[in-house]
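The record is given unchanged here:
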Amino acid sequence: MAAQLSKHKPTQLINLHAYNNNKTCPSCNEAVFKVEESRKVFDGVRRRYKCGACGFKETRYEISSDAYEELRTLRSKFAAIQQAISDLPYGSPEPVKAPVELKETVDAPDGFQCTNCVHMTPRGCSFEIPEANTEDALGCVLFEEIV
């Protein structure tokens, strides 16, 4: 275990004393539950305890108050997201798509493929091909003739 570099402040001593008085073994309830190892981890400290009476071992993680507040905020947001997801209706039918209306006549000279294509709507090509109704659309691979 690393040596302590500076003395504890009075507020730290009060908190340490109260914390150490609360250290009893969860297995046998003896007051000989001591710190065996301490190690700094990402946002806090990991402490490994061992009971001097029964040999029970336990690991506890202590985090800063900032990390704890962040954890509480994230948990509440996650719970809200889970609630929103659970409220979604599963197994509901897919929305019915409106049938594509075909325009009888297209403002294009006769002979263009698009005039006879099932994908042509009053608003243009349903695939949004910019060459629709032009000479460049003659080789369209999506062309399907109206039957």
